[in-house]
Amino acid sequence: MLQHSKAAPGFILFLILFTSGCALLEELPGDLRGNGSDEARVAAALREALIVGSERASDRAGQVDGYLGNAMIRIAMPPEVQRTTARLRMLGLGREVDELEVAMNRAAEAAAGEAVAVFRNVITGMRPADVYAVLNGPDDAATSYLRRQSESVLKRRYQPIVTHHLSQVRATELYGELARRYNQLPLVDPITVDLDDYVTGRALDGLFVLLAEEEKRIREDPIARTTQLLREVFGRG
Predict the structure, then answer these.
(1) What is the pTM of this model?
(2) Angle at 56 between CA 147 and CA 220, to 5 degrees
């Protein structure tokens, strides 16, 4: 049986993971309210907490300016292009550079909704060993687990959306023209970055930054509130 005195503090942190401290988990699956082993109920509650948290992070990323307005995850021009920005502006292409950066961030925001179903599938498929590895792991255990288990699938689902969005606003065409104009300059290293792949990768980086940020914040905050469920599961009065 689960040792309450050892697991409860860590689990409570995870159960409110990514939430604002509100009682968001009062409506939980029936298996948490019925009979069953402590281990099964703890595992189900952790999965529910992670689903709530991943949905919150995905929603944040998918809002208008979810990337563009967040300096921590805003997608900048590819490093190779950043080194050429001054020259591009001297060529009269400053407006195009700015438009391209906006389009990259909008594409990431458009793709963010794909993460919800992918995360839910990974979380509901967690084995008991996975649950307790997250429960007893380091401060970024939940984020690291979700990234390991979902990143390749997310990339496959993100990339077509990013490609479509960039094409729809003619960002891919604009990027190609910027690269072509710059590559014609003498004595420069040519720009060869695949824009779709770059934006997809940075979009995923940003999503997991949001997950890690929330995980860290929740772990560091004092526990001020618990739900009836937590008191029932852990016998905390």
Answers:
(1) 0.77
(2) 75
